[in-house]
Write a structure and sequence with these properties.
heterodimer; A: alpha/beta; B: alpha/beta; 6-stranded mixed β-sheet; 4-stranded antiparallel β-sheet; disordered N terminus
Chain lengths: 359, 344
């Protein structure tokens, strides 16, 4: 499964180290290459954001690290949690890491909570799984954790079943469970996507509290650039299974060097800008991961695309300091704004071209 | 034909002759026990006394969180569900209680685009058939319908040659364009857009928003834009009505609402939207509401927002605040309405 050496010394300043991770799923139609060589390092206490649209491979990356992918998935590369390889571990071995060193928060709290147990029991179970404490102590800890994430009347709420709680409260219970074992890394996969905005604000606050309490590093996976802007230090942008840009939060938002990142920023209606500004969508749709054409996967949608882009896929290379971009023309993007690059059109360029051909 | 009613108190109404108006719409859904008897054990107060006016060629945004009654209001406006009380006027004609047959000519003028482009298109029909369906129903297909379908596809930015494909062959954004083409097939005057871009990725969403703007300019359409996403609403609408638990709590022009919101809920809603601008986002002082939206089966007395409001006083539990101008220049339903600077 994996070629990496599993006995490397633990670098305690990098609790999560992902190196050249690839994930492919065999299907009847062929191999779906969901993640294609993703590397990132999460430093102690740091918050790293992974942004990308549906199908870009963000969630699969997280699931691979946690050992949650089905057995049919073909995984290569390495993912180390506190220096310990998690890829290819059997169920018992990964269970010792999961929860204790690394915790995962999913988008939908109803799927991560069991409907037949009270939230107190589920929290206590998480505590008991890794700590040698008495049952009563575990229940006390459960109520305490609910209190920390801002659930009112925690002593009563431990006896509630998930269906008795609102979506925002359930997600806070999931955050409490994630905190239970004082993990070194919390991976939150679209933790607020299913929630209303005012509830989203509450849950994000609970997540910040959880980080402050545990000192855990955070990987925040989301499609929402606004959520990213407020909660992480560094950002990785994913497209078609690869990291296409990575850098500090300021580098990604104020000086992006990959056309896709610029396109994403230009597509957003901005509350902090004049209303009259027209949006600049990225035309076309992301490629199918089943039959990826050679070259840069963004080339068909990219206004800068040239022949070289259709032949060679660019590597993620440093453009300045810790800022890296995967684009043959990233040096042309210095001080370029989305409106310089993308047109404020409503129609797909390819369709326009097809329509032109018809005439 | 009746003459247009004078605007009711607190109505969202700057336009002299609205195309579509709602007057004191109320919708209660019964809650019944399971089993054979289905005894009535309660009532969901989905929409309570909602009045609004849609002016020609304008876009009214109806915003609020899940369960606030936005979509129920939209369905009543289209007479898809009957209101418990209140009425809907289309160009001065009362459409509430009209029979299916009487409603049919009006259906041409009032169309809806749904949120989920995966669920709202019949997977067994080709795209052309989907767009032709409303034309056939209204007996307009025989007369150049085929060309009209092709035009429609072109209008929404799709290739007419792809008309014989099925919905699953298209991406989410393209499917939403098919939904828009279908709604536009009968040349309606009013389009109700129920979360039209919420299911789409941002890069795709922007194209659909631009398309909606272009279509409105080109065809002179009137939009009711329902959304929970305030940044999209701010971008596309002219006026906004904010709903909370079945009631309109504040309404005004987009400019007024985003610069001088007076209702604590509107302020919290605006404040909760994360800005994709790290410097601003980190410097903001966010209003974080406590608690959750109460159950609409048993809404709080007086002001419905009082259970989550930091300004709530005794009067809020007793007296329901009317939706009137309280010095903010636009109607606000709060006893303690006050503009709060620097929310965004």
């Amino acid at each position: 499964m994996t070629t990496a050496d599993t006995s490397a010394p633990a670098d305690l300043d990098v609790p999560l180290d992902v190196e050249e991770l690839t994930v492919a799923f065999p299907t009847d139609d062929g191999l779906v290459r969901a993640v294609r060589g993703v590397s990132f390092h999460l430093r102690r206490g740091e918050a790293l954001g992974i942004v990308g649209e549906s199908g870009s491979g963000k969630s699969v990356t997280a699931m691979a690290v946690m050992g949650l992918l089905p057995e049919t998935a073909q995984i290569t590369g390495s993912a180390r949690v506190l220096g310990r390889q998690t890829l290819g571990l059997d169920d018992a071995a990964i269970s010792a890491i999961r929860g204790k060193s690394i915790a995962l928060i999913f988008q939908d709290p109803l799927t991560s909570l069991s409907p037949v147990y009270t939230v107190g029991k589920q929290l206590a179970e998480a505590v008991l799984a890794h700590f040698d404490v008495r049952r009563e102590q575990a229940w006390d800890r459960a109520a305490e954790l609910l209190d920390i994430v801002g659930i009112p009347d925690p002593r009563q709420r431990v006896n509630a079943y998930p269906h008795e709680l609102s979506g925002g409260m359930r997600q806070r219970v999931v955050i409490a469970i994630a905190m239970a074992n004082d993990p070194d890394v919390i991976i939150a996969d679209e933790p607020t996507t299913a929630l209303d905005v005012t509830v989203q604000a509450q849950v994000l606050e609970a997540l910040e509290t959880a980080r402050a309490e545990t000192g855990a590093a955070l990987v925040l996976i989301t499609h929402d650039l606004g959520v990213i802007a407020g909660h992480v230090d560094r950002v990785c942008v994913m497209y078609a299974g690869k990291l296409v840009e990575s850098g500090s939060i300021d580098e990604i938002f104020y000086t992006p060097r990959m056309p896709y990142t610029l396109g994403l920023l230009g597509s957003l209606p901005r509350m902090d800008q004049a209303r009259s500004q027209r949006l600049t969508p990225i035309l076309g749709t992301p490629p199918s991961l089943l039959h990826l054409p050679p070259g840069c996967p963004f080339a068909p949608r990219c206004p800068l695309a040239a022949d070289v882009c259709r032949e060679h896929e660019p590597d993620l290379v440093p453009v300045a300091g810790g800022h890296a971009a995967a684009c043959h023309f990233s040096d042309r993007l210095i001080e370029v704004t989305p409106t310089d690059l993308f047109r404020p059109t409503a129609t797909d360029a390819r369709v326009l071209a097809e329509l032109e051909d018809d005439r | 034909m009746t003459t247009p009613l004078p605007p009711a108190a607190g109505v969202v109404a700057p336009t002299p002759s609205p195309v579509l108006s709602a007057r004191h719409l109320v919708k209660h859904f019964p809650v019944r026990t399971r089993g054979i008897l289905k005894r009535r054990i309660g009532v969901v107060h989905a929409v309570c006394d909602v009045s609004l006016d849609l002016g020609v060629r304008e876009t009214l945004g109806l915003v609020g969180e899940s369960g606030c009654g936005k979509s129920t209001t939209a369905r009543m406006l289209l007479n898809l569900i009957p209101p418990t009380s209140g009425e809907v006027l289309y160009r001065g004609t009362n459409v509430t209680g009209l029979a299916r047959k009487q409603m049919q000519p009006l259906r041409r003028d009032l169309q809806i685009v749904f949120q989920d482009p995966f669920a709202s298109l019949d997977p067994q029909m080709t795209v052309s058939a989907l767009i032709a369906e409303p034309l056939r129903i209204h007996g307009r297909y025989a007369d150049g319908g085929r060309e009209q379908v092709q035009d429609m596809l072109r209008t929404v930015g799709l290739n007419p040659e792809h008309g014989n494909r099925y919905p699953h062959e298209f991406s989410g954004g393209q499917r939403q364009r098919i939904g828009i083409a279908r709604a536009l097939a009968l040349s309606p005057r009013v389009l109700i857009l129920d979360e039209p871009v919420s299911a789409l990725d941002v890069s795709i969403q922007a194209g659909v928003i631009n398309l909606l703007e272009d279509l409105q300019d080109a065809l002179g359409l009137t939009y009711l834009f329902i959304s929970h996403d305030l940044s999209v609403v701010r971008h596309i609408v002219d006026r906004v009505a904010v709903m909370y638990l079945g009631r309109i709590v504040e309404t005004g022009t987009t400019e007024e609402l985003f610069t001088s919101a007076g209702h604590p809920y509107t302020q919290a809603l605006i404040s909760a939207i994360p800005l994709p601008n790290p410097h601003k986002e980190r410097a903001r002082e966010r209003i974080v509401l406590t608690g959750d939206v109460p159950n609409p089966v048993n809404p709080p007395s007086g002001c419905r927002f009082r259970t989550r409001c930091w300004k709530a006083q005794d009067i809020c539990a007793v007296e329901e605040p009317a939706l009137v101008d309280r010095g903010q220049g636009h109607p606000v339903a709060c006893h303690f309405a006050e503009v709060r600077p620097e929310i965004i």
